[in-house]
Fold:
Amino acid sequence: MNLPEGLRARLAALYPGAQIRRVTALRNDESAGGEMKALGYARLLRIETTAGTVVFRTLRPDEFGHDRRADRVENMVLAYDTFAKIPHHVAAVDVGMIRNDGMLLPLGETGEPYLITTWTEGSLYADDLRRVAAGVATDQDLARAETLARVLLEIHAQPGTQPAAYTRAIRDLLGLGESIFGMVDSYDAETVPPARLRAIEEACLAWRWKLRGNDHRLRRTHGDFHPFNIVFGERGVSLLDASRGIEGDPADDVAALSINYLFFATNQTDWRTGLGALWSRFWSVYLAGDRVDVCAAIAPFFAWRALVIASPKWYPHMSAADRDRILRFAERALAADRFDPSFGAEAMA
Structure:
């Protein structure tokens, strides 16, 4: 693949003397399989050079809060500012604009934003979950679930720095184009009745008022801690795409990962020996070190992730019965005073 001259020039400035060996276009989820995840926000190129391998990304406009150029600029700059603050995360190398004539420049001129990050070798955690869904959990699978619980405890051990960041995190949970309101707007009436979506949305609004003012819960967070952003390799865990300012409620990250044990298990025959075992191990390890009582606040975060998973635009091949199962899990969490991890087993019964 031939690189545009502007990108070649920028790489030469970043890595003087380096030679480009190979360029590969990547799907947003390279190994997840198109039959599962139909949407992705980014356009990605893997660029191998004699100085190392990097990923060049741009964002496509979409209805989930990225329709304005300013939205896409914000996303890229926030990534550049925050990736280094998350343990185990890939590094952001450069951020700037692609000028209309194809040249890459620092931010400020007309064009689209880009981001360059380091590359990490390994396999997506989503691949593990897909394999377990087809069989049983191994000792390594259990160990990895425990590792991820401990990674989150490490991330969440750092308190937030600005109390107002908690208020914004809870507001953004509902109001962003890629969060609860935006996901609800993406549904059609044939997939899920509008009355059901409105009830979920109103329950989440009630939870906003329960959580509002609880800035003592503010911690460093990843913001998008799901299996497609987690890589296991020879050097352990690497993380991708920290999001939404990396400060908020730890329940955000716990929900983002744990609901995927339910999602990948929708077609599994034995929850107890498969993904249910990973669910149990993850929860037991995380709760043993939990500093803020995530079960008291996790319901609206589960609702958000359930709306993503059940979305016909994100996962068009999910059956109507499985969509209903995931949404019922979220509705039960929203209706309870606090979340009980046993809800997971009951949802899969």
